[in-house]
Design brief:
The chain is mainly α. It is built from 1 helix and no strands. The protein is about 20% helix and about 0% strand. The longest helix has 12 residues.
């Protein structure tokens, strides 16, 4: 059977070729930079802001 390899995609942080160990990133550093962006809320999913039900009654 043939060994089929997937094409190497660039790292989403720096654009270098990704490495299997850190996929889809090229290094542990780029992986940590991405995680930090999630923690700092740099990435958001668009949507309407909602008010929790317990805040509507004014208590």
């Amino acid at each position: 059977m043939e060994d089929v390899k997937t094409p190497v995609k660039p790292c989403p942080q720096c654009g270098k070729p990704s490495v299997q160990k850190y996929r889809p990133f090229c290094s542990a550093r780029c992986k940590q930079v991405d995680l930090g962006k999630w923690f700092n809320e740099a990435y958001v999913i668009p949507g309407e802001e909602t008010i929790p039900a317990n805040d509507e009654d004014g208590e």
